[in-house]
Amino acid sequence: MKRVYINSVASISAQKTYDNSEFLNEIVDYEDNVIGAVNPSYKEFIPPAAARRMAKGIKMGVVTSKIAISEAGIETVDAIISGTGMGCLRDSEKFLSALIDNDEQYLTPTSFIQSTHNTVGGQIALELQCKGYNFTYVHSSNSFESALLDAKLQLENQEANNILVGGVDENADHTIAVHRVVDHIKSEKVTLAGLLNSNTKGAVFGEGANFFVVSNEKHEEAYAELVGIKLYNTLQKEHVAEEVKTFLEENGLSATDIDAVVLGNNGDVGFDGYYEVLAENMFKETPQMYYKHLSGEFNTASSFGFWLASKILKTQSIPQVVKLNDVEVSSLKTVLLYNQYRGENHSFTLLKQC
């Protein structure tokens, strides 16, 4: 089977990550429990008249896809595979509100048309004039990993050469209010630096889009090789270390071969213990990183972690702001990512320097 390479990356997040020439050089701090994405200049990528009709999630997805395609040095791709937990949430809420307010009459179709989960993938295809395979995975907090696994299988079996894969989710007022009621969002405002020490229920919610061009042909400026992905819907805390060991063995590795781990800690006192199982035992002497204090928590936040790991392998540097411990290594060749949300939808992703 063919190998799979990450040839380009693109990110719009709560940090200024849309500029690929920088790597978390300037950190946007906050004191809040819901944070929004830092917007690039959309008019540089999308005609203003068209951008005005697009929801934020669509704009983020279109711009990151264009950045990724440009950096990969290609005109188009063979397939577009997206992951999203909630889709174009703002338009969904807008349409449902209009449905109630107008007594189900005289409704304009625009918000309904743009409210579906596959709107982002469809809009990207229109922009690229890509008529190939186009699929959107809606698997909660495993949505991005499901899209990535699909792309990996197609590339390994030579069903495609270049695939655009990514994750995108946006904030919306009503949904945020619901999450507050059920304590999924922290009741108090916290700072970026104080998130993991908050010792309270819930997370800081965010939004963003991260897209990548993955290929079975290695680009000169490739970021990393995608070695393996494994997903679990449910996994008991006491079995996490065992499953990590099995996953690594399936890829011919052991815990000592891992040069860094990227963990999905979000400050939720009820569920960060899953990461502590690994951080305090198996990977105690391994450099550890986290990222959700920068991006916020959302269903495809793990795509930001994937962006982080890819950049670390290419630059061979770990920004101070993402370090969980002070362990140092001479070189970074293999990185393991682990993510879960509220004890469900666990994922292991393995990247190697190429």
UniProtKB/TrEMBL annotation:
Short name of one Pfam family: Ketoacyl-synt_2
Alphabetically ordered keywords of this record: Transferase
PANTHER family on file: 3-OXOACYL-[ACYL-CARRIER-PROTEIN] SYNTHASE, MITOCHONDRIAL (PTHR11712:SF336), POLYKETIDE SYNTHASE-RELATED (PTHR11712)
Domain Beta-ketoacyl synthase-like N-terminal: 43-175
Protein's UniProt name: Beta-ketoacyl synthase chain length factor
Domain of life: Bacteria
SUPFAM superfamilies (alphabetical): Thiolase-like
Record bears the keyword ATP-binding: no
